[in-house]
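Technical annex, item 7. During the second reporting period the consortium partners agreed on a shared format for inverse folding records so that results from different sites could be compared directly. Each record opens with the tokenized structure and is followed by the designed sequence. A conforming record, contributed by the partner at site C, is shown below for reference.
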């Protein structure tokens, strides 16, 4: 296996540790990741970037030593011959290892888009063979099977239920009455499966499908992650047509049912889906798809870098950043705020101030002492770094406000005077974290905002990781917003305050670099 990796990776190493994976000129969709002999294998749906929602007729395959840098391999597991149950396409691979044999469960799709679950096996993860008894599972009479076309039975995930010495398969389906659901089946040999009916039914008809179920066990509780969608098929669709597009999770004491929704049931909203949660060396990771707009519609998607699942004491989970070993963090800010420029709205006079409107906050104050900055601004005020920085970096601060009428923000990829930039704001009045796009003379455009538990009188840490066109926004260490945005590729950093008594501390910007650059 080492020889195979050496042959396939005979190229220059990455200049950056942070690299979201996508095949050239292609998009990536539902996927799985498995490890063998210290090498990670990624299998995924792929299709033409900029095209419609349908993928290619086989699975993409890539390998990695660190879960960050991936090298494509030849495709595997093609669709079946004409007239077969999987003649049209194959979707959503998931792999389980037993006795040194790898079992790939996948969705087969016929020419009427009917879906069933099939199985292929491999000893080395490079060569695969479909079993002769495919398909191994279809939906039961409780489902929409009587429709005769577009019957849902996809996205299989297999969990080893060691307590009951069996395997459980979670898959997404549709009830006879149209409600979205997650189906359940059991097996004792990974080949013969008995359908057990739905384990979770979504009562909210605003969802027309659930996808990508994934079960994790932690401290005697079971966590069922899945994507909830309400709208048309994703690829080729307008994002505004989706009532729901998110990564959710449920909790239970029983892997077969009685699920409850935790307080942070929606982990990521709007542009992410199809999360996978593999466990390597006792660490539970999360990977997910990030969708992109091409011509105003979703026509592309990439695989996220790995993040870590953090198990909280109250039984809930959050998503934390994951930086690979051996990565250097090069500081972008030197801590000298005496050279920063005040850019308050309406300020008149000096040429290094920018006038946004005739009336503004001429009495605004920005006072820097060490790595602490205190702002008092009646209107919107900006405090800008004099140096332009790389588009790929992490920028963070702690924000503390004295009352709920104030707002504190990070300014990213800005022009010199903050009239065109991105803003990541903590709005204490609305109790929201907000991602804005700002352009001179226009109202701030809301890219995404989420309700969060923030209170005046308590410091909250905000961090933005910019990775090319992709942004990850963390609040108090938990990933809150993920987006792809293309308006501003680089620029200045700064701070924004609106209202009195806004305090910033531990203002830090770093670039993540691989060791060979030093």
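Designed sequence (site C submission):
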């Amino acid at each position: 296996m080492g020889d195979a990796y050496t042959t396939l990776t005979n190229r220059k190493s990455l200049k950056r540790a942070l690299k979201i994976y996508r095949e050239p000129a292609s998009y990536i969709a539902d996927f799985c990741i498995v490890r063998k002999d210290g090498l990670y294998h990624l299998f995924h749906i792929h299709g033409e970037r900029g095209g419609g929602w349908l993928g290619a007729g086989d699975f993409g395959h890539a390998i990695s030593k660190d879960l960050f840098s991936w090298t494509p391999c030849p495709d595997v597991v093609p669709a079946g011959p004409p007239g077969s149950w999987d003649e049209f396409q194959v979707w959503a691979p998931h792999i389980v290892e037993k006795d040194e044999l790898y079992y790939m469960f996948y969705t087969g799709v016929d020419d009427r888009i009917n879906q069933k679950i099939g199985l292929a096996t491999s000893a080395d993860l490079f060569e695969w063979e479909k079993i002769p008894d495919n398909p191994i599972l279809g939906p039961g009479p409780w489902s929409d099977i009587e429709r005769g076309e577009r019957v849902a039975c996809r996205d299989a995930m297999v969990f080893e239920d060691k307590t009951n010495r069996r395997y459980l398969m979670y898959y997404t389906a549709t009830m006879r009455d149209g409600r979205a659901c997650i189906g359940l089946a059991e097996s004792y040999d990974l080949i013969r499966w008995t359908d057990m009916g739905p384990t979770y039914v979504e009562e909210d008809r605003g969802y027309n499908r659930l996808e990508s179920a994934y079960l994790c066990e932690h401290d005697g509780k079971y966590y069922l992650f899945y994507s909830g969608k309400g709208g048309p098929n994703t690829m080729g669709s307008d994002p505004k047509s989706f009532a729901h597009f998110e990564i959710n999770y449920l909790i239970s004491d029983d892997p077969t049912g009685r699920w409850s929704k935790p307080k942070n049931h929606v982990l990521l909203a709007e542009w992410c889906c199809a999360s996978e949660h593999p466990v390597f060396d006792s660490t539970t990771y999360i990977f997910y798809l990030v969708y992109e707009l091409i011509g105003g519609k979703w026509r592309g998607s990439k695989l996220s870098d790995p993040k870590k699942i953090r198990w909280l004491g109250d039984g809930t989970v959050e998503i934390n950043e994951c930086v690979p070993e051996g990565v250097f963090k090069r500081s972008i800010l030197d801590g000298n705020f005496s050279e920063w420029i005040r850019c308050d709205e309406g300020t008149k006079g000096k040429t290094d101030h920018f006038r946004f409107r005739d009336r503004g906050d001429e009495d605004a104050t920005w006072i820097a002492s060490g790595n602490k900055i205190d702002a008092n601004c009646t209107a919107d005020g900006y405090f800008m770094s004099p140096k332009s920085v790389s588009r790929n970096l992490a920028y963070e601060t702690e924000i503390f406000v004295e009352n709920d009428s104030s707002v504190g923000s990070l300014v990213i990829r800005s022009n010199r005077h903050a009239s065109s930039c991105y803003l990541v704001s903590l709005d204490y009045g609305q109790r929201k974290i907000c991602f804005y796009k700002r352009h001179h003379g226009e109202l701030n455009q809301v890219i995404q905002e989420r309700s969060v538990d923030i209170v005046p009188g308590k410091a909250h840490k905000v961090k933005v990781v910019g990775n090319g066109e992709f942004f990850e926004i963390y609040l108090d260490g938990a990933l809150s917003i993920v987006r792809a945005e293309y308006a501003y590729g680089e620029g200045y950093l700064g701070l924004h305050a609106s209202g009195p008594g806004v305090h910033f501390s531990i203002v830090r910007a770093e670039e993540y670099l691989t060791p060979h650059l030093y």
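Confidence is low (pLDDT under 50) at residues 1-18, 346-361. The chain has two domains: 2-13+26-320, 328-517. All partners now use this format for quarterly exchanges.
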